[in-house]
Amino acid sequence: MALNQFEIIKSLGEALSWFERELSWGVPAAELNHLTGRIGELYTAMFTYGQMATEVNQRGYDVVSAAGERISVKTVTSSNQVGFNHNTFEHVDRVVVLKINTEEMAIEILLDRPASEARTVMREDKTGKLIFPIYRSPTQADDVAIADLLVTKQAHYKGHTLKQYENGTVHVVKDGAIQQPALPILREFAAELQIDPLNSTGSPKNTRYLGDQIIRKILELQYPLASEH
């Protein structure tokens, strides 16, 4: 049965919530392939206004876009490559490779190209599988993009500077260096500032959400009169 856009978005939200819950229980992201794969397919169906393929791995594609493109979707968390079936690749019109950033709980598009273009950046391994290597470093790429963004909020706490940018990204800086990962530091600050590190569903808050609340709390404590306006 075909899902409408509302049902796809709702299913995506439920899958992401379950994924967060599994991570909070200590399950490694690499062991949640069934969930990451489903999240990637739902996300692709959402932004292409498409539908899930009627059968699992139907002729090598997972989603059919509103324009009728047959899309092969691969979703990773930490892998440095993904593989495609050479025998069914001829049935694919478009290739999408996604990465779930487990610290930010964000979905990043690493590749979204017509199949013919995607094939030019793939290599064939000894078994005949088509391999797309993932060279992109999310941290480095984000740093380049961040340089062009405005800082919307900033606070200082215990020798650290917390910066929030206009796209919502939060960085923790100490002695001029961005601290990676930031989440453990933010959780320590949250405990000291009596901020709940869990959201309403009981899952851990991500860097952006927790960082935003911490910055607001620090500014409120430092400038109590300003917070009243």
Outline the fold blueprint:
Blueprint: H1 5-24, H2 33-47, E1 51-52, E2 63-64, E3 70-76, E4 81-84, E5 94-101, E6 106-114, H3 115-119, E7 123-124, E8 130-133, H4 138-146, E9 151-157, E10 160-165, E11 170-174, E12 177-178, H5 183-192, H6 207-222
Helix pairs in contact: 1-2, 5-6
Outline of this structure?
InterPro entries: DUF6998 (IPR054267). This protein is α+β, with helices and mostly antiparallel strands. It contains 6 helices and 12 strands.
Rg (CA only): 20 Å
Distance between the termini: 52 Å
Note the total helix count.
6
Portion in helices? 25-40%
Query: What's the number of domains?
Result: 2
Beta-strand percentage?
25-35%
Q: What is the averaged pLDDT score?
A: 86
- Counting helices, strands and paired strands, the structural category is alpha+beta
Protein name: DUF6998 domain-containing protein
InterPro entries: DUF6998 (IPR054267)
Domain DUF6998: 29-129
Organism: Rhizobium meliloti (Ensifer meliloti)
Account of the protein in words:
The chain has 229 residues and is α+β, with helices and mostly antiparallel strands. It has 6 helices and 12 strands. Strands 1-2-3-5-6 form a 5-stranded mixed sheet. A hairpin with a 2-residue loop joins β9 (151-157) and β10. The longest helix has 20 residues, at 5-24.
